[in-house]
Amino acid sequence: MSALLGLGDMLAGRFGERWIAHEAGRAQFMAAEGHHAAGMPDVVAQPRTIEDVQMLMAAAHAAGVPVVPLGVGTSLEGNAGAVAGAVSVDLSGMNRVLEVAPEDLLCVVEPGVTREALNEELRATGLFFPIDPGANATLGGMISTRASGTNAVRYGTMRENVLGLRVVLPDGTLIRTGSRARKSAAGYDLTHLFAGSEGTLGLIVEASVRLHGIPEAVLAGSWGFDSLDGAVQTVIETIQSGVPVARMELLDPVAIRACNAYAGLTLAEQPTLFVELHGSPRGVAEQREMLSAIGAEHGGGALTISADRDEQRRLWRARHAALPAARAMVTDAVTWSTDICVPISKLAGAISGARAAIDAAGLLAPILGHVGDGNYHVFFVLRRDDAAGWAKARAVNEELIDYALSVGGTCTGEHGIGIGKRGALVREHGADAVALMRRIKAAIDPAGLMNPGKIFAEE
Amino acid sequence: MSALLGLGDMLAGRFGERWIAHEAGRAQFMAAEGHHAAGMPDVVAQPRTIEDVQMLMAAAHAAGVPVVPLGVGTSLEGNAGAVAGAVSVDLSGMNRVLEVAPEDLLCVVEPGVTREALNEELRATGLFFPIDPGANATLGGMISTRASGTNAVRYGTMRENVLGLRVVLPDGTLIRTGSRARKSAAGYDLTHLFAGSEGTLGLIVEASVRLHGIPEAVLAGSWGFDSLDGAVQTVIETIQSGVPVARMELLDPVAIRACNAYAGLTLAEQPTLFVELHGSPRGVAEQREMLSAIGAEHGGGALTISADRDEQRRLWRARHAALPAARAMVTDAVTWSTDICVPISKLAGAISGARAAIDAAGLLAPILGHVGDGNYHVFFVLRRDDAAGWAKARAVNEELIDYALSVGGTCTGEHGIGIGKRGALVREHGADAVALMRRIKAAIDPAGLMNPGKIFAEE
């Protein structure tokens, strides 16, 4: 703590009230959407400029003080959780859109810009930023966890949509990665090394991301199925047939029940796909025909989708509220969102296996997912004091991960490793690959000051 | 050399005739398509299995012998050029397609599989591997240089199409990166660190790559324009409008002249786009209408495209033969292909600037390009002994790179750094970013044995 106090003295002149050491201020930064216990940062710094960040990092480096980057706190695996003796760096105030270049289908943003704010700013351009993880996360946070979400089937994840970064390294050095060109073969791909590194290698202070044209026609709606397997088989065949759906989300009957109650929907409590199609009017009509034909073979009801923007907004608002909706199913409950991604052909086995495991354990847990990517979530709904329930949920989660790894999938499609999946990381990639990641970490952050304890268990 | 002899003795039992130390054998591996002088390897090893590679790497590591990975030698920047005292590892014999998984739209290959062999093998599945750099390169080589080519506009580059790798590290350790899932947020993105690292970090011994459905309808043809600028503006607006063209290649009048002569075409010697559209029959018809409308405003002639596969094959064969076609313009000439990629809005300036610089220098050089990506090539056609011509070409190349960097582009879209662009790498990313790349290199290859002298100038 004395190193932290010394750092505070050193930076007080520059940061002033943006160096938050009093308890009431720090307590604002405890919030965490995930199921991990939220700690209070020992101190929070609020940089406004790249120079602020550089000075902070250089001083922390000199003082040996760890640094934890923070966005708006929507991450789910404790990725940005407080670390004792560390300074938490709240980047949400660096939230300017620095440049929009419609002619190159890109924009340049500070890390604290949220996806909703960005799309608001883009409205007049006819372009949009497609990555939509549900929560109104910051771009910096989304890059740091390689986030994706509902639109990734068609538009890719943050990985495919980040062109370049400016990063402050642990010693305060500022580097630029990538370029504004759509592709490059110039040297090591540092952009994609920092994307997904969860703040363990440096601090992202600027990002260039790809934009996409707002589609001429959009159709969206919900689609009920006789069986969970029928809904999933429809997804699998849709992807295998190359139908370019924009969004394809699964909600099981428990999820529908939660959303009906929370968001005032009146959907039948059956396995349901929320579908969105983008394209020209003729293009979306054609996609709709292809989808209908596939679904009809798997117990799908009528595919009633609409071009009405308000109806579409209501639908996606309900989908995005699924996590609080699940939480509201039980008084004083906490939700724990798992995050598995499997090869598309294994999705039916993964989801029916998940449902069976949840039911066998007697847990309450809707299943939802960005199923077009093979990515799904189980939302365990638990009271904090239900020790037996948490133990069962932990066991089911491990079972889901084991299944995913046994079929070539991954323990996390989009939430990252944080503190919750450090063990799973080793099971997924093997000890030698994780040892290599640690060598890279040590090469870039030799003092181990960047977001310590995240991704890798401390040795 | 004595270390190399010792290594040969150690490995003779395992490699037998696949350890090639005699001059006639080694001379087979001098061929290089690029303009860099081709050296002869001191010894060539031909592994057939991952275990061969692991044993070779471990032994070379113990003996302190450098290792240079080789595919089929189509790289253009000396990326796989011989290094004195090193063993060149010819991976072209590890050329099996290990698995095709149509249900997951992926396949698993050894690094020596060529793209043509892979697509031949995929024919019955209705799927194809889209990355097509022109040359019949190996998948391992294409991953190592982050190659792309004519189809990248629609299907992305190797970066977007590689899902996972198996890599033998410099000490012989085998690791696995990535997964079979379409996305993952599990730890550092090692897959994309190795992709584009040009064999300087380890040896790729297996790759999982994405496949795509063969489109129902394909239209292709050539499209003449009144002016170079009109052709380029058509490309820019096509991309900005989001028309999902599969291929969009520019050939300037000099390139057309070369292709007419070499491939027996009879195209008018004017700025020309080679275009290919993929989709449903209605989809390609719609794309065609949109393209025609854009081109009509920029001096485009009739867009005559056809569904005839033989005609399409003839067209692309001519495009792919552009490099030898350029070489054939002058007796005993060598071609030097530059490789610039700029943000799409800067393409007109880049290409008109290139033509002006070439003409001002009095050089013979067709301009071609994967212009839908903002990527173009100048093929300097030069006799080896034309010292003044080479000096002028070097100056023009630097000018093209400077322009690209000044507008946020890159010094290489797809050929990589090799030995030819080591200086440009530093100009593009800055000394601090390149220093970081070197720290990563040192962490993974502390003895500096992997493809030394490539990407980074030796210190």
In short:
The structure is a homodimer of 459-residue chains. Chain A has 459 residues and is of the alpha+beta class.
Secondary-structure blueprint:
2 copies of one chain form a homodimer.
Chain A: H1 2-15, E1 19-20, H2 23-26, E2 43-45, H3 50-63, E3 67-70, E4 87-90, E5 97-101, E6 106-109, H4 115-122, E7 127-128, H5 139-144, H6 152-155, H7 158-161, E8 162-168, E9 174-178, H8 190-194, E10 203-210, E11 212-213, E12 217-224, H9 228-240, E13 247-251, H10 253-263, E14 272-279, H11 281-296, H12 309-320, H13 322-327, E15 333-337, E16 340-341, H14 347-361, E17 367-370, E18 375-383, H15 387-406, H16 422-429, H17 431-444
Parallel strand pairs in A: 2-4, 3-4
Antiparallel strand pairs in A: 1-2, 5-6, 6-10, 7-11, 8-9, 8-10, 12-14, 13-14, 13-17, 15-18, 16-18, 17-18
Helix pairs in contact in A: 1-3, 9-11, 9-14, 14-15, 16-17
Describe the fold and architecture.
- Chains A, B: Its EC number is 1.1.2.4.
- Chains A, B: Pfam families: FAD-oxidase_C (PF02913), FAD_binding_4 (PF01565).
- The structure is a homodimer of 459-residue chains.
- Chain A has 459 residues and is of the alpha+beta class.
- Chain A folds into three domains: 2-92, Uridine Diphospho-n-acetylenolpyruvylglucosamine Reductase, domain 2, CATH 3.30.43.10; 94-213, Uridine Diphospho-n-acetylenolpyruvylglucosamine Reductase, domain 3 (2-Layer Sandwich); 217-406, 3-Layer(aba) Sandwich (Vanillyl-alcohol Oxidase, Chain A, domain 3), CATH 3.40.462.
- In chain A, 38% of the residues lie in helices and 19% in strands.
- Chain A has 17 helices and 18 strands.
- Chain A has helices at 2-15, 23-26, 50-63, 115-122, 139-144, 152-155, 158-161, 190-194, 228-240, 253-263, 281-296, 309-320, 322-327, 347-361, 387-406, 422-429, 431-444, and strands at residues 19-20, 43-45, 67-70, 87-90, 97-101, 106-109, 127-128, 162-168, 174-178, 203-210, 212-213, 217-224, 247-251, 272-279, 333-337, 340-341, 367-370, 375-383.
- In chain A, the strands form four sheets. In chain A, strands 12, 13, 14, 15, 16, 17 and 18 form a seven-stranded antiparallel β-sheet that branches. Chain A has a five-stranded antiparallel β-sheet with strand order 5-6-10-8-9.
- The radius of gyration of chain A is 22 Å and the shape is globular.
- The model of chain A has no long low-confidence stretch (mean pLDDT 95).
- Chains A and B meet through strand 9, helix 8, strand 11, helix 9 and helix 11 of A and strand 9, helix 8, strand 11, helix 9 and helix 11 of B.
